[in-house]
Amino acid sequence: MEQSDRCISFHSEPESGNANLIQAQNETSRALSGPVYRFDVFNETNSISLSSGSAGEEDYRIDIIYTLFVGTSDFLLAMARRGNGSQARSPWQTLDV
Questions:
Q1: What is the pTM of this model?
Q2: If the chain, 97 residues long, is cut into consecutive pieces of 10 residues, what is the mean pLDDT of each piece?
Q3: β-pair type (47-49, 93-96)
Q4: Helix or strand holding residue 24 (H, E)
Q5: Which residues contact residue 14 at a Cβ distance below 8 angstroms, ignoring those fewer than 6 apart?
């Protein structure tokens, strides 16, 4: 990640996957191998910093959130969605790493 990228959440996916992971693999016709991790990130340069939160936290109005699924494969699965709570999103894509 670049210095202007911020991670909103990170967690490992169960081996059986979840609905988002299954949808990503179905849309791309590619399956990740090994342990799979999900990252939700945003680019700080495409967001607006709001007043500081408590205890060193920062608050942002985020325009676009990127969801990444990463396994031990030589690719990852990526999707972008609006940060305003709408259901608008891009199709899932594979990105070579």
A1: 0.77
A2: 70 82 95 92 67 61 85 94 79 94
A3: unpaired
A4: helix 19-28
A5: none
